[in-house]
TrEMBL record:
Cross-referenced Pfam families: MR_MLE_C, MR_MLE_N
Domain Mandelate racemase/muconate lactonizing enzyme C-terminal: 158-253
Catalysed conversion reaction: D-glucarate = 5-dehydro-4-deoxy-D-glucarate + H2O
The name this protein goes by in its record: glucarate dehydratase
InterPro entries reported in the protein's UniProt record: DgoD-like, Enolase-like_C_sf, Enolase-like_N, Enolase_C-like, Mandelate_racemase_C, Mandelate_racemase_N_dom
Pathway involvement of the protein, from the record: Carbohydrate acid metabolism; D-glucarate degradation; 2,5-dioxopentanoate from D-glucarate: step 1/2
The protein's Enzyme Commission number: 4.2.1.40
Length: 425
């Protein structure tokens, strides 16, 4: 067998740094909350010629840093251009039954594509077949929010939600609006969602309760919003069978980022359709390239696709932008938590929205660079504050989520929970 030829690059080091970056206010969701900040782990892959590729993954703290360090025996000496070999080397399907490295593979893949782009002088989208658009539209990702430490930013009532959507539209130009639900009882969230839709005529809307509704409640909720300009109903209930039952009982297209997150589930959904739109997450699917492949399958079978957000700083946002640039069948605005951030760790600070869109980076690689000062600042902040329990609600310390849920937060409860007293944001 002849020797494999690659780029000539060789990996000589892999580093991980966990940071915590402030949010405007704590974001509430069906499983708990982001307690006023994101915890993200920045991955750097360095080659023998001094190039550094950037990756990013969610949370994890010291455990994520240790997990990345544990990949060194696999990665040292490897050619970062051989990303397909890397996929099987790190996440062989049977080995992954014992050690699921999907998100680790994603972060390493981002870095390897970044390296390959820098090595060739090409942006990542050129390595993936070339851009079909030079900017990606985003939805205003709306959350119910606890007040920030200074008392501002609360979103709890329909009026507060409408005001927040108007603010974001004025500031960023959003024309599509997504409400993250599953926090309050369905009646309160239905009232809030309808108020949101009526407040912005001509715009489009999405509601996502994170699969927390029973199928029967999901059907009732869907019937109650069928007259609105819905893009789709996202994860109203959990599971392919539950979503399939819902799909049989509503005219609204269904979307998911929880029950179609790999190719076997995608195949099952093609054979017995349960959702109409697959929300592709560059982390959940194990990288940008698997998402491009999945989008191709969706194109073949005429399923919709959109770009999903699992919470991002600028490096992962860049991965989402390059994905959005190359997928011809991207017919929906992407999701992003990004506008909730107060800062970023990339040179130049936060990327800017223009008319609800963000331009696709065109510099070599991912097109973003680390701001070393910011990286150090937010790494120190993480060491000071530590992690937070993503799947706990600071306002309900004895509560934990069930599927489906019948125990919701009280929308009459005002103020900032005592559990957030130690959080500065």
């Amino acid at each position: 067998m002849s020797a494999l030829k690659g780029s000539g690059m060789r990996i000589v080091d892999v580093r991980a740094t966990t940071v915590t970056v402030p949010l405007e206010a704590p974001l509430r969701h069906s499983n708990g909350a982001h307690w006023g900040r994101f915890v993200r782990t920045i991955v750097e892959v360095e080659t023998a010629d001094g190039l550094v590729g950037l990756g990013e993954m969610g949370g994890g703290g010291q455990s994520a840093e240790a997990a990345v360090a544990a990949l060194k025996p696999y990665l040292l000496g490897h050619d970062p251009a051989r990303t397909e070999a890397l996929r099987f080397m790190l996440a062989n399907p049977t080995a992954s039954l014992y050690n699921n490295r999907t998100q680790l593979v994603a972060a390493i893949e981002f870095a390897c594509l970044d390296l390959l782009g820098k090595h060739t002088g090409l942006p990542v989208h050129a390595l993936l077949g070339g851009a079909v658009r030079d900017e990606v539209e985003f939805a205003s990702y709306l959350f119910f929010r606890y007040p920030s430490a200074d008392g501002t930013g609360e979103v709890r009532t329909p009026d507060q939600l409408v005001a927040e959507a108007a603010r974001l539209k004025a500031e960023h130009g959003f024309r599509v609006h997504k409400l993250k639900g599953g926090v309050f009882d369905p009646g309160h969230e239905l009232e809030s969602y309808r108020a949101l839709a009526h407040s912005l005529p001509g715009d489009r809307f999405r509601y996502d309760p994170n699969g927390i509704l029973s199928v029967e409640e999901a059907i009732r909720f869907a019937h109650a919003i069928e007259d609105l300009d819905n893009d789709y109903a996202e994860d109203f209930c959990y599971g392919l069978n539950g979503m399939r039952r819902l799909r049989e009982n509503t005219r609204i297209p269904l979307a998911t980022n929880t029950v179609v997150v790999n190719f076997e589930q995608l195949a099952a959904n093609v054979l017995q359709p349960a959702v109409d739109v697959v929300l592709l997450d560059t982390t959940f699917w194990g990288g940008i390239r698997p998402c491009v492949r999945a989008a191709g399958v969706a194109e073949t079978f005429q399923l919709g696709v959109a770009v999903h957000s699992s919470g991002e700083l600028g490096i992962q946002l860049a991965s989402m932008l390059h994905l959005g640039a190359v997928v011809p069948n991207l017919a929906f605005a992407a999701d992003a938590h990004y506008h909730h951030l107060r800062d970023d760790v990339i040179v130049g600070g936060k990327m800017a929205y223009r008319d609800g869109r963000i331009a696709v980076p065109d510099a070599p690689g991912l097109g973003v660079e680390l701001d070393r000062t910011k990286l150090a600042e937010y790494a120190e902040l993480y060491r000071e504050l530590g992690p937070y329990p993503y799947d706990r609600d600071p306002g309900r310390p004895d509560w934990y989520p069930l599927l489906p849920s019948t125990q919701f937060a009280d929308p009459r409860a005002t103020g900032r929970p005592a559990a957030l007293a130690g959080e500065p944001y």
